[in-house]
Every structure is written in structure tokens, then in C-alpha cells.
Amino acid sequence: MKIAHILGAAALVAGSVFSGGVFAADINGAGASFPAPAYQAWGAAYKAKTGTGVNYQSIGSGGGQNQIINRTVDFGASDAPMADDKLTTNNLLQFPTVIGSVVAIVNVDGVEGLTLSGPVIADIYQGKITKWSDAKIAELNKGKKLPDAAIVPVYRSDSSGTSYVFTSYLASSSADWKSNVGAATSVQWPTGAGAKGNEGVAGTVKNTKGAIGYVEYVYAAANKLATTDLVNKAGKVVKPDVSTFTAAAAAADWKGAKNFNASMIDTAGADAWPIVSATFILLPKNPTSGAQSAEVMKFFDWAYGKEGDEIAEKLHYIPLPEAVIQDVRKAWASEVKADGKAVWTN
Amino acid sequence: MDATLSGTPAGQVLAQKPTGRISDPIFVGLLWASGIFVLILLGLIIAMLFEGGLPALREFGIQFLWSTSWNPVTERFGAGVMVFGTLFSAVIAVIVALPLSFGIAFFLTEIAPGPLRRPIGVAVQLLAAIPSIIYGMWGFFVVVPLIAAYVQPPLIEWLGPLPVIGALFQGPPLGAGMLTAGLILALMIVPFITAMFVEVLESVPPMLKESAYGVGATTYEVYRNVSVPYGRTAMVGAVMLGLGRALGETMAVTFVIGNATRMSASLFAPGATIASTIANEFPEASMGSLKLQSLLQLGFILFVISFIVLALSRVLVRSKLKS
Predict the structure, then answer these.
(1) Mutating which of B46, B262, B284, B290 best tests the A interface, going by the most A Cβ atoms within 10 A?
(2) Cβ contacts of residue B15 below 8 Å, gap of 6+?
(3) pLDDT score, position A5
(4) Under a CB-based contact definition with an 8 Å cutoff, are residues A59 and A28 in contact?
(5) How do residues A72-115 score in pLDDT, each as one tens digit?
(6) What are the structural domains of chain A?
(7) Contacts of A215 (CB under 8 A, 6+ apart)
(8) Which ipTM was obtained for this model?
(9) What residue spans of B75-131 are helical by DSSP H?
(10) Would you call A9 an interface residue with chain B, using a CB distance cutoff of 8 Å?
(11) How many CB pairs under 8 A join A and B?
(12) pTM of the full structure
């Protein structure tokens, strides 16, 4: 394990050296791959504006958590929120940056605009529904001619935040799924085949007749994939788009959530898309360098602003509700202290 | 060295000696260091894998080696599915690669006309130079859809219902699975096995072959009764070496094996190998977690399997070269 650390640290050092402009003020982050395009685009725009570089290494959420626990980076990034006790033990502040969503993609001959529901998808991924012509699917798609073809479920083989969000949704929709499979960055899938990354899942679904898969909306939108509509908790059929994602973010209980871990999975909002989740930043509450920590917060403060939002939206991410951003700034001011003094003042 | 033999006057050698007095020990020291470095590095890697994976072995006991559960949610881990998948895909690879390598090697040494020998030889070597990830992408975008469309449906229909061997040909035509992984692996190990076969066939004394031809043997008979028996042990060693390579192959396999941590006897069912599981799960395994420890233990098991195969191959190759 030690060797892995040294290699990881060496990679980060090399990354920061070769990215040019080695100012003392450059900030280093590592972790989740899902928000990486947003963080990298923000970093580039921020450097152009302020001269402070942001080196973000997309190494996966687990790696991001490990790096920030070891304090080898200034901030870590994770898709799945860190457990409360782990945050306390490692003295970390957790806050969300952008919101993403997961959509189902299908390859069914001759059918467009398919509608599915959480319980139905859970049954498909458990091998209980095996044909597209199944009565439960037909009931959601009245008037559509469904082929009598076998369903091939496809999942992410690499452990990922996307799988975490998707399996959380299935666990929330189906008691069977919750007790038999559960929710995690990777699970023991009862049936189907795994492919690596969003591109692997999308490619396999495209190549396999009757396949169903799931990818991040960001990826589906950029590649114009055929997505399905879903029946949400309120019983309404919703399309995956910015308005339904924003509705989910608005319906979440941010005030009652500890460490900003507000669930946006299967919310009660009337127009809410059911598979929505925030991605998080992990910041030490006891930074060794207060100035460096302040730079990190300055960067995200800028990213929460108008310019940051525009960049995020262009990449199909959903900005946080304004009230949540205010709470994040308050948490910065009250929780992050170097030598007993607050690093951030509002 | 004997100066008189190489034609250098003795006086000159003595005159040169002082220049090497300081540099020589340094040079020898560096050589020692290089040799020892490899040993230490190997030892450290084994130690790291073993030490890192020990907690998993303590938690699950020796059953870890054959338990077929790999459930990150309940944190019940076992290596059974991956060990099986690793061996199954590698054996498929060897079964496919063996006749192909025999064919190419014998063609190159016996049949191919001079001008054709080089291009084919170079092409085989180039196959070995293609990075694993390229095989993976080619397998994913080209081979998998072809197998799903043209190979699996008829095989499932014709052979699936048969008793006993039918179990090998059941399941949905996904394209990705054990067979596809084995085929891609076969292509990847063909260059290595072929290269060693060529070497072995070339070492067959011409006198033996010419005698056989002289008594009226056909090409096939010479091949079957002279060349192959002469190099049999070394050839088995070459195959083991190919097997060793197939066991550890990661990226290409991850793309085409279907990545399912379920046990299945079917050639078409998606599976997982030790290397592909580590590649898939490592980035999200957090420090100190049972998952990371289980992955390190998996790495150690792969190391042991590869070591055994490699050791066997060396023994077999060497025994022949000595005789």
C-alpha cells in the first residue's frame, strides 16, 4: 500500500510540474471522474482570470478520498458522500458543487420514447423481467408495439459514483433490490454484463439488440443517446432534462441533511427526475496552510457564481440551488480553521 | 583474459591496467547493484501484496481462495470466480493459440519460400508490439458485435440443447464473455509461442530431418515424427510461457469479458479474471477497506499462479536445452 501512495504522490507531483505555471498558489485536487470536465473547465477559466492554476486529477472517488485523508492534495472530490463518522475522524468538511443525474438508455427495435419505472428497472436488473413484451412494461407503454425480444441488462463494470446513484435508486424503488443487492459503487449484479465506463456501457447497449444500460446524463446528452422517460415517486412520467433535474434539487431536504448529504434520489417533487445526485468536495477543517485552503474556497466561491454556472451548464451539469450555496459559504466560515482562526470570512 | 590468444602483446595489457583500477570496482559494483535491485524489488512487491492482503485472508479464512461471493455491499469477498475466470480464459487462449502457432512456426521454418519468410515473421512480431488496450478496443468494437451476431446464435441453437457439452453453449448472445476473452488472448500470445516454436524447430539438427526425408518421409511425417518429438519439452515450456502471459493480461480482457462476478460454465457467459477485477475495482477502493485488502490478496494469488506457471515453463525449456 505504501508503494501505491508513493506512486500516487509522484503522479500528482508530476502532474503539477508538467501542467506549467508552478506558482506557490496553484491548488491541487484529485478524485471523482464524473465532475472532472466541470472542474477542469472551471480551472482553465479561473487561471485565465486570476492567474491561480487548479490541477485536478481525475482518479476516481475512492482515490480522491484516500488522497485527502493523507493530505497529499488541497482538496479531494467524491461522488458518493463520505460517511459522517469518517468525515469526523479525518477532520474533513464536505460540500456539494454541482448536480448530475443518471439516465437509462435502451436499444429496442422500433420503439421510441419508452417509459419505465424504478420497480420495473429493478426487476429487469434482477432477471425477473426478461422480455420487452412483459406485461409490466406494456402497462407503462400503452399503445406502443413492444417486441418479444430478450432484455440484456448492461451495467458499469468499474466501480463508480454512477453505479452508486443508480443502485441507490433501485434500492429506493424496490424492497427486493434493497435486501438482495443493495447500493454501492459496485454491487454483485444478479444478471447481465458489465462494461467499462460510460463509453463501454453506451457502446455495449448500441451493439446489443434488446439491451438496457445506464449512463450519466452529461454523457448521454453529449452523445445524443436514446434515453427513456421514468415514472417518478409522484406517479408522473418525466423526461430527463434540466427542468426535471432542477425540480429534484429543489425537492431535496437540504436543511435537514448532515454534511450536505441531501438525498435527491426518488424525491417527492411532482416534476422531479428520480435519479439525481450531487457530487462533493472534501476539504480539511484543520489545513496546514490557511492561505492555501483559502485559495481553494476562493476558487469554488467563483465557481458558484455566474461564470462558473455558465461553464457548468454548457457541460450539462446542474448548478446548486442558491440557498444551498449560502449554507456552504457559512460552513466554510465556521468550520475551517488554521491556528484557531477562521480561514474564510463571508 | 589470455592476452596472447587475442594477439595483444603482454606489455601493452599491463600498461593499460592502471586505468581500470578505480573504474573496474565501481563498474562491478554497479553490476551487482543492478542484479540485487531486481531481487529486492521483486521481494518488496510480493511482500506488499501479501502484507496488504493479509487482513482479507484473516477475515475470510482460507475459503477466500474458492468462495464465489464478491459482494461489495455486504463486504463478503472471495476469489473463486476470478481464479476460475483467469484459468478458464487462459486455457481457451492456449487451446486456440497452440494449433495456430504450430502452423505459423512450421510454415516459417520448413515451407515458406525465402522472400516470404521475413514479411510473415515480422508481421507475427508486430502482433506482439500492439498495445493491450488496442486489442481491447478492437475486440470491443469489432469482435464482440461479430460474435454476438454470427457465432453465438447458431452455436446456442445447435449445441445449447445437447446434454453435458450443451452447458458450454448456453445463455444470451452477448458477444462479450469467456470465449471472446479467450480468442483475444489467443491472438496476443500467438507471437510469443510462435517465436519460441520457430527457435525450437530451427534447433532440430538438419541431419535428422534429411535422414527422414531420405528414407521417403513426407513433410507431415517429418514434422510429426522428427521435429515435434525433438523439441517437445521446450514446446510445452513455450506454451506455459504463453499461458503465463494470458493469465495476467488486463485491459484487453476487461473490455471483452463482460465483467460479471458470477460463476458460469458457459463459454458465452460474462465472467471476470483476477486482473480485470483489480482494474475495475481499484480506483474506488478506499484505504484500509476490506475491499482494497481483498484486491491486494487477489493480486498475490495471481502472482503465485503466474509464478508456478513460469517456473514450470522454465524447467521444461531448460531441460531440453541442456540435453
Answers:
(1) B284
(2) none
(3) 52
(4) no
(5) 999 999 988 888 999 999 999 999 999 989 999 999 988 888 99
(6) 3-99+277-342 (3.40.190.10), 102-252+261-275 (3.40.190.10)
(7) A102, A103, A105, A162, A198, A201, A202, A225
(8) 0.76
(9) 80-106, 114-129
(10) no
(11) 105
(12) 0.81
